[in-house]
């Protein structure tokens, strides 16, 4: 009779049913395999995909700065007027592009320790100006001196150095000086062996952050990259209460299977505290 229409339909139905059964089996098996593969590949140990991206951060990480430029320095100094500031920024630097160093696994506690070398490269395309933009800012050395030396006699001496160096309450500094360091003319006159370079992040280049000890996820994948200790400690001894704890990751990576409802905790050594982010909406960082 050959293959008539009915026969074709039956064959089609049978093949369809077989494929549906296979599909039914393979979907959970596939999910299981994918989950198993993810669980294997996110562990921070030699040979996994996550490890490679973790040693040297796979994506560009930027840090942006906004500076408060003082508009009325003379009025504040002479007449104690209210300070007027103008926010200028962003000034963007690429950070965390250097590979982690001294990576040491501890199989017993399932942790890995490392140093994160510091480096910052200015990114003009994401900044409103250059590193040489000048700001009128508080004179950090002059403002801090009376706090450090409450003694009137010492303050008298320091005041003579401040006058001699023509320093005052405010100073003009470039972005580069403010962030990465400048030689302070007032401190330069102080006849003691003190650090005369001042900068919000000085010293930065050729220094490293850490030692960090984080969980490698080998025993519990939900702990991967979470910090166990920072510089050998579980707290900072700087803030009071929970702000002093070191919770979460270093923000460069997070454990897998994160839900949008989850609050992501991370610790930033630059601001010397932990913080967190809540999901609000999706957006794209893709630049055309
Ligand atoms: C300080 O206040 C006086 C009196 O109001 C005014 O004449 C002077 O210009 C002010 N000085 C500065 C630097 O603003
Ligand atoms: C990192 O490793 C280098 C050499 O391998 C060593 O000289 C240095 O002391 C280590 N640093 C720390 C903080 O352990
Ligand atoms: C720090 O190093 C980076 C990369 O070599 C360089 O672009 C930057 O200018 C350096 N910063 C300072 C303040 O020396
Ligand atoms: C800072 O710069 C402004 C103008 O750019 C100038 O008027 C002021 O005298 C400068 N201040 C100091 C302390 O050098
Ligand atoms: C902070 O850590 C020190 C030792 O690492 C410990 O003695 C102290 O109790 C901790 N404080 C808090 C608030 O956890
Ligand atoms: C934060 O860290 C501390 C000490 O490591 C821990 O006891 C606490 O449960 C953590 N809190 C959160 C919300 O993860």
From TrEMBL:
Coiled coil: none annotated. It catalyses: tetracosanoate(out) = tetracosanoate(in); tetradecanoate(out) = tetradecanoate(in); butanoate(out) = butanoate(in); (9Z,12Z)-octadecadienoate(out) = (9Z,12Z)-octadecadienoate(in). The chain crosses the membrane at residues 7-29. One of its GO terms (cellular component) is apical plasma membrane. Its main location: membrane. One of its GO terms (biological process) is receptor-mediated endocytosis. GO terms for molecular function: low-density lipoprotein particle binding; low-density lipoprotein particle receptor activity; scavenger receptor activity. It is a multi-pass membrane protein. It is found in: Apical cell membrane; Cell membrane; Golgi apparatus; Membrane raft. Keywords: Cell adhesion, Cell membrane, Disulfide bond, Glycoprotein, Golgi apparatus, Isopeptide bond, Lipid transport, Lipoprotein, Membrane, Palmitate, Receptor, Transmembrane, Transmembrane helix, Transport, Ubl conjugation. Belongs to the CD36 family. PANTHER family: PLATELET GLYCOPROTEIN 4, SCAVENGER RECEPTOR CLASS B TYPE-1 SR-B1. This is Platelet glycoprotein 4. It comes from Bos mutus grunniens. The gene is CD36.
């Amino acid at each position: 009779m050959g293959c008539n229409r009915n026969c074709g339909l039956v064959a089609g139905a049978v093949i369809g049913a077989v494929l549906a059964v296979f599909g039914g089996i393979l979907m959970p098996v596939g999910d299981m395999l994918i989950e198993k593969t993810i669980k294997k590949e996110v562990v921070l140990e030699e040979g996994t995909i996550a490890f490679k991206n973790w040693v040297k951060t796979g994506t560009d990480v930027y840090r942006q700065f906004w500076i408060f430029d003082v508009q009325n320095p003379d009025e504040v100094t002479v007449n104690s007027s209210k300070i007027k500031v103008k926010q200028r920024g962003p000034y963007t630097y690429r950070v965390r592009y250097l590979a982690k160093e001294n990576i040491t696994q501890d199989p017993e506690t399932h942790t890995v320790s490392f140093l994160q070398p510091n480096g910052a490269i200015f990114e003009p395309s994401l900044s409103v100006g250059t590193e040489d933009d000048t700001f009128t800012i508080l004179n950090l050395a002059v403002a801090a001196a009376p706090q450090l030396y409450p003694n009137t006699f010492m303050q008298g001496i320091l005041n003579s150095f401040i006058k001699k160096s023509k320093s005052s309450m405010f100073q003009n500094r470039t972005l580069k000086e403010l962030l990465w360091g400048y030689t302070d003319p007032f401190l330069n006159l102080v006849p003691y062996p003190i650090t005369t370079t001042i900068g919000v992040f000085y010293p930065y280049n050729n220094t490293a952050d850490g030692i960090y000890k984080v969980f490698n996820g080998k025993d519990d994948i939900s702990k991967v990259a979470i910090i166990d200790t920072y510089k050998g400690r579980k707290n900072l001894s700087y803030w009071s209460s929970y702000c002093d704890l070191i919770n979460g990751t270093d923000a460069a990576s997070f454990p897998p299977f994160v839900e949008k409802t989850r609050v992501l905790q991370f610790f930033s050594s630059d601001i010397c505290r932990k913080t967190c982010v809540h999901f609000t909406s999706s957006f794209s960082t893709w630049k055309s």
